[in-house]
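Fold sample X.
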Amino acid sequence: MNQNGSLYRINNMLIQPRADLYDRIINKIDREERRIILKRRLIIESFSLVVSFFVFIPLTMKLLADITASGLTQFLSLLFSDFAIVMANIGDYALSLLESAPVLSLSLSLTAMLALVFSLAKLADSYSDFKKIAVN
């Protein structure tokens, strides 16, 4: 073995890392944490989209059944068959439509549709954030 072998090893151990190494490591840890958080958000928002979709379908079917049962379809068909008579009595016709509308089913169905659209928008927003992080 060489006599200077131990000095060579000591000199190698005294080499300083680059100045930006700490910042690069912290930035990589930060990016991984954000990516994990965004993955969780994507999973939760995908689940909420599926749930709101499966709630929207039965509520819409209930709304259609209530519209048929309330006679609203017959009032709406008057608009196409006797347009001149409907326009002559538009105030009474509008009140008849409002009275026969299934308000509870309509409001529940519209709320489910709003939840569906909101879930879809949040999912798209989270996906675009995730793509930005994945590219960097």
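Fold sample Y, listed below.
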Amino acid sequence: MMQYLVCVKSSEGCDYSIGCGMRYNLVEAESREAVIESVVWPDGREEYSSVEGELALTEILIIPASDVVSVDIEGILADINTAAEEQQQQSITANELATLQMLKDKYENV
């Protein structure tokens, strides 16, 4: 059995820009044909298909799960936060060193 990422878009949606009517599922099946069969006829061929009627699917995308890349967003966010904290600390250090130098110059003869 293989896993497939199935992306479907239904005819009912509110706006193309925000993805209304779009759904994504991981489906396990023997083949792409079996996935198509399960998406188009989820209740069997004796029932209505998902590509007809008022809520009909208008697009079906099937991608082998082996080609799907899961992005570690938490790791990326942690890296961004760490870099921001380091940048902030460097800025604080630079300001403190500039203040220290200014005070040394000001009170050099004291």
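Sample Y note: The first helix runs from residue 32 to 40.
Also: The helical segments are 32-40, 73-106.
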